[in-house]
Amino acid sequence: MSLLKAFRIPQLRAVTRPALVARMASLPGGEFDFEAEPATPEWEEQPPVGPDTAYPVSAPNPMTPIRAAVPARTRQPPYTLYVHSNMNNNILTFTRPDGSPIMNVSGGQVGYKHKARGTAEAAHLCALRAFKRILDESEQQGPGNMSLDVLFNGFGRGRDAVFRALLAAESAPVRQLVGRVGDITKIKIGGTRSKKARRV
Question: Is the pLDDT of residue 75 over 80?
Answer without folding.
Answer: no
